[in-house]
Amino acid sequence: MIDALHYEDFAPHVNTKFRARLGEAPVMEIELISVEDKSPSPRQEQFVLTFVAPLEAPTQQNLFNIEHEHLGEGVIFLVPIAKENRGVIYEAVFNRKREAAQ
Question: In 3D, which of 80, 30, 74 has the Cα closest to residue 53?
Answer without folding.
Answer: 30
